[in-house]
Amino acid sequence: MSSAAELKKFCKAAGADIAGIADLALFREDGTTIPADLLRHYTRAVSVAMRLDDDILDAIAALPTRPYADHYRTVNADLDRVTAHIVEWIADRGYRAGAVPASKIEDTEKLLGAVSHKAVARMAGIGWQGKSLLIVSPEHGPRIRLATVLTDMPLLPDKPLEQRCGTCRECTKACPVEAIRNVASKGRYQSREEALVFSRCAERTWENSQLPGIGARICGVCVRACPHGKPKRTDKKR
Questions:
Q1: For residue 56, which of 72, 64, 68, 66 has the smallest C-alpha distance?
Q2: Per DSSP, what are the bridge partners of residue 49?
Q3: Which of 123, 207, 219, 238 has its CA 20 to 30 A from that of 161?
Q4: Residue 102 included in any domain
Q5: Is residue 64 part of a domain?
Q6: Range list of H helices, the chain
């Protein structure tokens, strides 16, 4: 078994639903990090994803619910535990590794983390970047949360996926502030503004964070609306 395959097997054993490996040389071409030299010791990134609960997501209407806010925090904490185990696994083999928290804003004005989990996940083959800018995995759609481990371990990287949104407009129609522009892209968007009226999305999540019992900049409407990853339910007549 290759080192990459062995690591992915460990990631899933540690609790991740999906794991992929990104070549950070590709990220350096178009990525930004905080601090700017964050990647100086690293050549690869391990992207891990955990699936969100379908019943909690499907209960979202125009506003996030308290159960969704609680679930969001729980899954983020679970991801941070998973990445801590991955860092230890890599370090035990003599390589550098550092975890990037699942949800921590470093630049509050631009709403940026230390590294873009979505950009890394796209390059790691976790999924394509949808019209909402969410990562849409073939298995689970956008119903996932992401975290990242940076490393210098010489792992075989995965390949990015081309966007498969096609003519679908479900996230565009569902967005309560009409922030999604319905622009398709084969690979990555050149900027957030190409896909979104980002100020509308940012303002809405800020308003949501002030709601009783929420306390986080979340929404969830476009996650719930996307047809990819939706559970196939059968209504039984009684």
A1: 68
A2: 18, 146
A3: 219
A4: yes
A5: yes
A6: 3-14, 24-30, 54-58, 66-91, 117-123, 170-174, 192-195, 198-209, 221-225
Domain enclosing residue 102, as ranges: 3-225
Quickly count helices (H) and strands (E) in the chain: 9, 6
3-state secondary structure of 231: coil
Whether the Cβ atoms of residue 126 and residue 214 lie closer than 8 Å to each other: no
Our CA dihedral for 213, 214, 219, 225, rounded to 10 degrees, sits at: -40
Asked whether residue 121 is domain-assigned, the answer is yes
Evaluate whether 72 touches 215 at the Cβ level (below 8 Å): no
Q: Looking at the whole model, is its pTM more than 0.85? A: yes
Residue 69 structure tokens: 């806010």
SS3 of residue 220 by DSSP: coil
In this predicted model, what pLDDT tens digit does every residue of 37-90 receive, in sequence order? 999 999 999 999 999 999 999 999 999 999 999 999 999 999 999 999 999 999
Tokens of 52: 């969100």
Read off φ and ψ for residue 122, nearest 5 degrees.
-65, -45
Residue 238 in domain: no
Number of domains in the chain: 1
* Cα distance between residue 215 and residue 53, in whole Å: 19
How far from chain centre, in Å, is Cα 11?
16
Coil vs helix vs strand at 129: strand
